Amino acid sequence: QVQLVELGGGLVQAGGSLRLSCAASGSIFSISAMGWYRQAPGKQRLLVATITSGGSTNYADSVKGRFTISRDNDKNTVNLQMNSLKPEDTAVYYCYAAGIYDYWGKGTLVTVSS
What we know:
Elements: E1 2-7, E2 10-13, E3 18-26, E4 34-39, E5 46-51, E6 57-59, E7 67-72, E8 77-82, E9 91-98, E10 102-104, E11 108-113
Parallel strand pairs: 2-11
Antiparallel strand pairs: 1-3, 3-8, 4-5, 4-9, 5-6, 7-8, 9-10, 9-11
């Protein structure tokens, strides 16, 4: 099993920045990719960004150029730096890890006010 705990999130004005962090524990040896998904009210959960253990990244078109994902394999953490935030970025953000199974954190709310 893998446990994921998210830190960060909160309320920010449009144009501002936030940083999310996720710490993994448990059977971390099984983890390959990690990343972030988000779910806005009434909508489905969508990919934000992922990063492999080798550092290859993938971003949703809506966040390219504004968000940066990074990973510290020694600390078993994945971070999401979010800049130039927009009201449409408002959502619950979930940390994700791909291993023997797919693992999810409990989520952290990001609210961007206009």
